[in-house]
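FIELD: query
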Amino acid sequence: MADAENLAEGGVIDFYSSISSFLKDQNVSITADQDFTDKHYIIKVNGENYTIYNEEELESADIWELSTVRSFTIVNCLLKEARSNERIFWLYGGNDLRAIFLTDEQYKEILNSKVLSEKELPQKVSGNID
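FIELD: result
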């Protein structure tokens, strides 16, 4: 369970804590802190600062989606650095957002199976972090 609203409202570190045992199994550790205000949301992960959203984005962007994409992208970068084959994908969105970990092979199998409807398919995370 990830809940996009929670992520956007300062919940990224709590989400990372909820997946920490899986990440540990992938040789990923996260030490995180955050600067969450009514103007921006910045998290510090393993000594690096990442903007979840800034003041301009707060006024114009879909903050729930932006928070999801950026917080998940950070996880995928850490997984890649650890040489894990796993990546985080998302299902559904909004208050029903779910995080799921798959390898590329598993993802392809799911897509090729044609068993799930379009809205049931895991979505690749594509975004930038700074």
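FIELD: remark
The radius of gyration is 15 Å.
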